[in-house]
Design a protein that fits this description.
mainly alpha; 220 residues
Amino acid sequence: MDSTTDILRLELFPAVWETTIMVAIATGASLVFGLLIGLVLYLTASPLFFPNRFLNTVMGVVVNIIRSVPFVILLVLLIPVTDLIVGTTIGPIAASVPLAFASVAFFARLVEGAFSEVDKGVLEAAIATGAGLGLILRKVLFVEAMPGLIRATTVTVISLIGYSAMAGLVGGGGIGDLAIQYGYYRYETGVMIATVLLLIVIVQGAQFIGDWLARRFTRR
């Protein structure tokens, strides 16, 4: 027990901080690039806006290719890209690069789905009033899709927490890496149990906040 306590006292906070860095950077990339890609996928597929089968197909194929590659393999494939972008392949910031690629593609599809669920009648009514594209996007599309976008963000964040555990394979660190290094390789069962319980609490907290926000933004 003393060994477990000492390990957690010395290693738990740095591991939590590393996981936070990885998840925050990847989530930020998703909210910017994933949202943009998802929006373009929706607009180029919808007959109400800018239907463009070629652009939609090309972007869809790229997104699907990234999503098709298992994350562990993606970690290895993107090592040269990671080194080019951040100048190193070790640490939470370096691990954030493959995490960002995976989460952007994942989030883009969720965003496209959230926009697709918006009532077309509402959009048609807005278009009929002569409103410009910017106004329709800001005041209608995003407002109506907000609960779905919040749920998509929640799912993405929770998935990233799970992906971050695999980032330890390339020296990314984090809570998952702590569990593997001490709980699995060094047979410190107490460390394994503590990290698993912490991950459960974090995921449950993220899900609770996401559900609460989605309910707040749901238009009755």
